[in-house]
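User: What would this chain look like folded?
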Amino acid sequence: MSVFHKFKTLFIIIISTIIILGCAYFKSLREGLTNNDNIVLIGDSILNNANYVPSGKSVFDIIKTRTNNILNVAKDGATIIDLYEQLDKIPVELNKSETYLFISIGGNDILNKRVTLDSVEVTKLFNNYMEFLKALRIKLGNTKINIMNLYLPSNPRYQSYKSSIDQWNKLIDINSNKIGEMYNVIGLNNLLISPEDFVYDIEPSESASEKIANLIYLTR
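Assistant: Here's the prediction, encoded as structure tokens.
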């Protein structure tokens, strides 16, 4: 084989390798896969539903099959005040633009009141949430913040909470684009809408885990 043909063969191999690697890279971007990205889950049982689904079928477990760069500090039953303790568990090293932080909170605050809240009470709860976001930005100001809104469980017994949930979600939308309060909104209210999405009437089911995990993974 002449030097020219050897060079040509080597050149073809190099170009082919570049094309294959390039396609794999852009495919990974399209699917939400990058090696440098980190996912942080903070909040309540929407993001930590391990107590309600079979082993390995929680939101965290499903995401973990796709990336090891995930930290879950969310806690079943958490309310807004519990977010501060969870925030303390997030290493400051994750304060970078490659970190995608997902928050689900508010549902337990509303449900724990046991009665339908009026507009003033819902707004007061939401303002407490915004106060937490200020603390979050002080510690993790470089992260990309994604806030999940609230869904209404399909069981009719929760219909009395609809007005509170609707107002909460509206406040999330209204505040998302304000200077200093910018965050991406994750619409769980349009994602979890069928009875199969819930266990124990209100918790995310195994199928809901798949939906939430996929939404988180593709949001990045």
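The first strand starts at residue 38 and ends at 43. If you want, I can go into more detail on any region.
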